[in-house]
Design brief:
- The protein has 13 helices and 20 strands.
- With 435 residues, it is an alpha/beta fold.
- It has two domains: 321 residues, 3-Layer(aba) Sandwich (Rossmann fold), CATH 3.40.50.12780; 102 residues, GMP Synthetase, Chain A, domain 3 (2-Layer Sandwich).
- The strands form five sheets. It has an eight-stranded mixed beta sheet. The protein has a four-stranded antiparallel beta sheet with strand order 10-11-12-14.
- Helix 5 crosses helix 6.
- The site of 5'-O-[hydroxy(phenylacetyl)phosphoryl]adenosine (DLL) has 23 residues, from helix 6, strand 7, strand 8 and strand 12.
- 5'-O-[hydroxy(phenylacetyl)phosphoryl]adenosine binds next to helix 6, strand 7, strand 8 and strand 12.
């Protein structure tokens, strides 16, 4: 049941010494990058005496990554780099993450560990329905599954009828899928009069990359009669494979031999006592091309108290409850509201007041943007209005990577608030509770 028994069940004090060794090595490696070289030039601890000393070092943020674009965090010569991934959800410089062959190998091993933990074995058939490309969901799991030795179908997302055809005809037993897509896919089974509970060999789904509740997990489990495991990760650390549920499905083990986790109060930035909810901060312990020190993930969670019955000693976090910044995750794609604003404001016929609504429809996130027309510039006909709307949709699609609907409204018709403008109305949790 363990992929690497010794590491996964290591006693806490041995694990702590392993972490400290790796941390010191990682800090040394980090200093080779222009960013940390400069940051640690004067007040760098050359060697931390204990893990607790890490809190004396400053945080690293997504803005640091953006400002150091493209190569400011790279610690090795380009000839050592074999892959780049990038996180969506940025305007201007994207967040790019580099990998050496060693990093890719470690990452694959971690994913193999995650999959093995839930009972996936060589004889399984794995259909990877996550996006291949800059997003880490597709390729990250792909190499892990191959490392484990599972036949992998690199189908990527979408084209639901073809997905179902493969699920049936290849007798797929394991899928990797966005939770929202797992729910939507069910509608296609209904249309085709196929009962996924009876007519498939499917037994496991890995879901992640977007927030989802315990109720949604149960719903997917019921609809398909399978086990659904929560998978957490972020491109900056590697991608998926940072924390994963074991067979007990009671929280996600953070793989502490590769990542050192802290939970901090997002406002005061103090490290919080065990069990209190706050923001997850991660330090990489084994990454070569791009180690990160005290990276603010902005993801809100807490450490779960007690030991896991599975025997693994790596601490568990609760499912992610939200974010401490304004990043929105729309069907797995990360978006900042400012991207919408900048795109709209670049269209002269569009005014300054806008609002964003997000709803669940048919288990998918629907993004709707309401925006006022700029009457000083736009005096067109109805047909021209429709054209303007199409242009706005196209510009937003190009910027965001998702297609919103756009509603153009009369000038001064949207609410204005006296204080800080509230522009984002997220109704998804309400819909989820109803659904
Ligand atoms: O979403 C990596 C990933 C791929 C994880 C496939 C799991 C499965 P990014 O695109 O960089 O990377 O987005 C990372 O997504 O900071 C969280 O806010 C959110 N997120 C990821 N997994 C979960 C999860 C990938 N299980 C951001 N539950 C993170 C809730 C999640 N939110």
């Amino acid at each position: 049941m363990y992929w690497e028994k010794e590491i996964e069940t290591m006693g806490r004090s041995d694990l702590a010494s392993l972490q400290l060794d790796r941390l010191n090595h990682s800090l040394e490696q980090a200093r080779r990058s222009p960013f940390y070289g400069k940051r640690f030039a004067y007040k760098a601890p050359s060697h931390l005496a204990g893990l607790g000393d890490l809190t004396t070092l400053p945080f690293t943020t997504k803005d640091d990554l953006r400002n150091a674009f493209p190569y400011g965090f790279l610690t090795v010569d380009l000839k050592e780099v074999v892959r780049l991934h990038s996180s969506s959800g940025t305007t201007g410089n994207p967040t790019v993450v580099f990998h050496t062959a060693g990093d890719i190998g470690q990452w694959g091993n971690l994913i193999a560990r995650c999959m093995y933990t839930t009972g996936v074995r060589k004889h399984d058939v794995f259909q990877n329905m996550m996006g291949y490309g800059l997003f880490t969901g597709g390729l990250g799991f792909h190499y892990g599954a191959e490392k484990l030795g599972v036949m992998t179908i690199p189908i990527g997302p979408g084209n639901s009828k073809r997905q179902i055809w493969f699920l049936q005809n290849l007798e797929t037993t394991v899928v990797h899928i966005l939770p929202s897509y797992a729910l939507r896919l069910y509608k296609f089974f209904e249309e085709l009069a196929i009962d996924p509970r009876e007519d498939l060999a499917l037994r496991i789904a890995f879901v992640g990359a977007e927030p989802h509740s315990e109720e949604i997990r149960k719903k997917i489990e019921d609809l398909y009669n399978i086990k659904v495991y929560n998978s957490y990760g972020l491109s900056e650390m590697c991608g998926p494979g940072v924390a994963f549920e074991c067979e007990c499905q009671e929280g996600l083990h953070i793989w502490e031999d590769h990542f050192y986790p802290e939970i901090v109060d997002p406002a005061s930035e103090e490290v919080l006592p065990e069990g209190e909810p706050g923001e997850l901060v991660l330090t990489t312990l084994t990454r070569e091309a791009m180690p990160l020190v005290r990276y603010r993930t902005r993801d809100l969670t807490r450490f779960l108290p007690g030991n896991c019955p599975c025997g693994r000693t790596h601490r568990r976090i609760d499912r992610i409850t939200g974010r401490s910044d304004d990043m929105l995750i729309i069907n797995g794609v990360n978006i900042f509201p400012i991207q919408i604003e900048k795109t709209l404001m670049a269209i002269p016929e569009i005014g300054h007041n806008y609002l964003i609504e997000i709803r669940k429809e048919n288990f998918m996130d629907r993004l709707q943007v309401h925006v006022e027309i700029n009457e000083e510039v736009f005096h067109g006909t109805l047909a021209e209005l429709e054209k303007l709307q199409e242009n706005a949709v196209a510009a937003l699609r190009a910027e965001l990577g998702v297609t919103p609907s756009v509603k153009l409204v009369e000038p001064s018709s949207l609410p204005v608030s006296e204080g800080k403008a509230q522009r984002v109305y997220d109704y998804r949790n309400e819909a989820e509770a109803e659904g």
